[in-house]
Amino acid sequence: MPYDINLADKVRAYLAEIPEIEINEKEMFSVLNFMVNEKTCVCVSGEKLMLRFDPGLQEDLAEINGYETMLMKGKIFRGYCYINPEGFKTIKEFKYLIDLCLAYNKVAKSSNKSKAKK
Predict the structure, then answer these.
(1) Both ends of the chain: CA-CA distance in Å?
(2) Assigned fold of 5-105
(3) What is the pLDDT of residues 99-113, one digit of tens each?
(4) Per-residue pLDDT averaged across 18-30, rounded?
(5) CA 8, CA 31: separation in Å to the nearest integer?
(6) Is 83:69 a contact under the CB 8 Å cutoff?
(7) Exposed end of the chain (fewer CB within 10 Å): N or C?
């Protein structure tokens, strides 16, 4: 199992409560990507949450219990991190993390979409 189904269900249920957002799920790279309004918002990777957030909050989030830096080719990938289960033991912690992702999603840029072949 590449990702925790129970955690995915918890994310799915929470996002479903948010009005006026479009949610799509994509399995990719052994994670379940929850896309909100066609942009990556939060992912479930194993038992961890992978967050997409305002890069200006990187240092603040690094103080959260369970924080894990996301590295790409040996460099810190700003605006993304993993949170291990000890960082979202309570519903308050869980909601706080998802809400950070949702807040950034409103201003985040979409990834470039490939142009359809003619």
Answers:
(1) 38
(2) Aspartate Aminotransferase, domain 1 (3.90.1150)
(3) 999 999 999 988 655
(4) 92
(5) 10
(6) no
(7) C
